[in-house]
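Intended use. Records like the one below are meant for learning the mapping from a protein sequence to its folded structure. Do not use them to infer anything beyond what is encoded.
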Amino acid sequence: MYSFIRPLLFVLPPEIAHGLTLNVLSMARGVGLLPAPQSDSAPIELMGLRFPNRLGIAAGLDKNASCIDGLGGLGVGFVEIGTVTPRPQRGNAKPRLFRLLEDQALINRMGFPNDGQQAICERLRVRRYQGICGVNIGKNADTLLQDAARDYADCLTAVYAFADYVAVNVSSPNTTGLRNLQSGDALRSLLDALIATRTLLERDRGRHVPVLVKLTTDLSDAELREAVRAALGCGIEGIIATNTTVDRGGLRSMHATEAGGLSGAPLLPRAIRAVECIRAEVASGYPVIGVGGIGSAADAIAMRKAGADLIQIYTGLVYRGPKLIREILASSANA
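Structure written out for the chain above:
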């Protein structure tokens, strides 16, 4: 049905269409109208977690954990919600989300709009989705960079009881200065603080929650390798590659010059290159989640061949709908 619905959604401003889609998806799940695609593959064991299949929903699609059950009902093996910040925030001024139809892409400068950790934790608590649920965390926009570790630690503490894994977002281009946390001593200091917090939480609460870090494709290969080595040295259990890009090469859309992070088809070659670079730096058993520009089963297969253990989609789902999930689950990308 999505091929019939999409033209109507695309008449609406992107952010309104996005919210409407999540609401409809939640209602459809609630009344049993989402028969999940079946996957013949065996579950995948990574980081001590059992993923029903290799395909997940990337962070950003469900920022407020308002549609976990609906998205999970599409048949994916995991859903990552967020980015969550300690305090609620409105994000950047609207308009802040743009469709690039000619490029099969989106540009967003959302700026982590979310209801804050307290409200989101309550939604996580009552979810019915039985697959893996990751929580992507960040800092509030008005928190100084030197105080960022406090925000991340607060979020980690708040979501610890409800998250199957936690993803540390230091790579969004839409929070001023955030990407400075990806490099050198700043990244090591932040990740060390988070692993120290996780150690205390694990002892007190009797459960282990893997912590991953999400990096951008806008890093050079040398910078990416340095970030990966920092993550490994701090005890981070996986890498998510990649976040959106600020590169605008080769775009055709009238919105190509909008500020923000670009996602969708133009990102795929850069994301694959980043995954290849990361995989060359880490052992074969070290978890890498590939995300960025996957819009077909062939794209998913290419991401897996590059070295990704798991894959995530977002913009491809906006353009192609649930059919994309069915195609990927039926392909060798899920093997």
